[in-house]
Amino acid sequence: MAPDLRHAARVILGIQAPEEGGGRMRRFMYDLTRGIACFSLFCYFREMRLHGTRKVPRDRAVMFLANHQNALMDPLVIAAFTPFRTYFLTRADVFINPMVNQVFGFLRMLPVYRMRDGRDTLGRNEEIFENCTRILRGRGHILLFPEANHNIMRKVRPLSKGFTRILFAALEKHPDLDVLLIPVGINYENAAGFPDRVAFYFEDPIPARAFYDKEDIPGSVSRIKQKVSETLENSTTHIEEEDSYAEKLEYLHGLGVDLTDPTQTNNALRLYPHGPKKSGQRRGGILQGLLKGVFFLLNAPLILFWRLIIKPRILEVEFVSTFRFGYVFVAQPLFYILLWWICYTQIDALWATLLVAIHFLLSLLYIKAGRSA
């Protein structure tokens, strides 16, 4: 592809220009994959918003520290829509075979081993931590989930000290290195629902060395964890008390607040239970119901296969959206190819293309106008 055409494609797709040097084909394939992911996620989500990405410096070592609700969807949106070439630390149990490992490696995902993966696997983390140090030394970007697990509940859970181990190892090995910590609040309207809305909030950078004292590592760990946790609690909906979680969530639904806006939700929670009682929840109208019916009729085979065969086999609700997106990513294009071929054999190529385009546009209209269910 000519350089100017390649540049134009990157501009259209919103993709950052690849660094110069070797591995051009690998970088081109990565950019192409990210472009496809951008388009697919655009078609999957009703709305996606990223706030504060301009706060992220391009020429500094950065650790993104995000809350974790929605399995692989959390890093996927960041990888696709931010202009940063980020590496992602991912739970090792998703690296299930050599082929999958190659794909994840291509997508810059690094496995992290936990006690539940077996005590004998923990030693492999040392090599991963060394890789992280090299990435930070090269002014790269790493995304970690400091809660060390995922949970669909709207709450920032206690942070693990795992990210501080990686951070302090890099700072001790390279005294001239200054890593910026950037908390990222991830907010879904309904993480397991479809079509869904999501908003990412990139907070102000935190200089790691301001909290690091090599003579007081336990104190340094405590201070950094507290600072990151407080920032995440402000940048995502944080319902702290588990015994009143359901009541508070129902309270937010009743107010009709935007669940992707942590300022709205947390301000409303501060008034609980003395806040306004009347329901502000928006209800679907006739048009939305009609669009939903048309969407189901147009995609009935795919929807029924999902609901009856695939979804019941998903053991963790946090993976529902991940598997749904992966299923749609593979099945929908095949469905359109089959539909086009049937229409082509029965009518002609022009009408086949037109009918497939109408089908796609009607489905997209429902996704962009619909509400999570």
Automatic annotation (TrEMBL):
Q: Which UniProt keywords apply?
A: Membrane, Transmembrane, Transmembrane helix
GO-annotated molecular function: glycerol-3-phosphate O-acyltransferase activity; glycerone-phosphate O-acyltransferase activity
Residue spans crossing the bilayer: 290-310, 322-342, 349-367
Q: Which SMART domains match?
A: PlsC (SM00563)
The Phospholipid/glycerol acyltransferase domain is annotated at 62-189
Does the keyword field hold Transport?
A: no
Q: Can you name this protein?
A: Phospholipid/glycerol acyltransferase domain-containing protein
Q: What is the source species? A: Muriicola jejuensis
Task: Please name the taxonomic classification of the source.
Answer: Bacteria, Pseudomonadati, Bacteroidota, Flavobacteriia, Flavobacteriales
